[in-house]
Amino acid sequence: MSDQKDFEKLLPVLKALNAKEVRYPDMPVDQAVKEGEIMAAAAAEDAKLFAEVGFDAAKIDDLGAAVGALRFAQARLIAALGEMKEMAKQWAEEEPKAYALRAEILSAVAYALRDVQDAKRAIKRIREGAGHADMIQDLLALSEVGKKYSKHLQAVNFDLNLLDTAAQKADMLGSVYAKAFVEKSTKDAKDMRDRAFTCMRNLMGETLDAAEYVFRKNKERLDYYYSAYRSRQNAPATEPETAAV
User: Fold this and answer.
1) pTM score over 0.70
2) What value, to the nearest 5°, has the Cα angle with vertex 13 and ends 66 and 242?
């Protein structure tokens, strides 16, 4: 089964986790996946012994699926983070151009419509806005006002094509701004990654409890069920570990 199918299989379980129970990875995720894979493979080999002590065989299958689900969720989070960085870069490039376009259209509209009372009220509201979100909205509003009073703008030799440019830029920047600064997709991807990690660790904990009993007289086999990462963490420090993403 593919990692994505593992993720989709466990999605109802991941969503059902209480938010208070969701754990942030306490080790590098690639290390957690590796240890989950080792435990899942060992448990599959020892399934008969686990069954003899009443351990639910379905949990062994679920552990294997949880490993795949975590791997998929982590890949999706990394992709979302990369997209956010690209969007932030694109925003940095487009922002000064957008503000310059706003200033140019606002200047022309304010002059051309200086004697149109209704338009003056709209222009005043546009001038009152501040911040990136307002700038995006201003471009759209200026485009609409300009098209409504296109004859006035033509009279001052204004390039009406800039009104379409403003509307298009507002639409494009709205999407870029949301991904660069709101980061909802990234937050959602991180939450699901943390849920996948929690699910896998919970299953590993249950499997370890059973393994400690099944292999209480076989310490060598029991080693397959212990965390090498935590063993290093509990040993005297030698060099810093890589932080979890």
Assistant:
1) no
2) 40
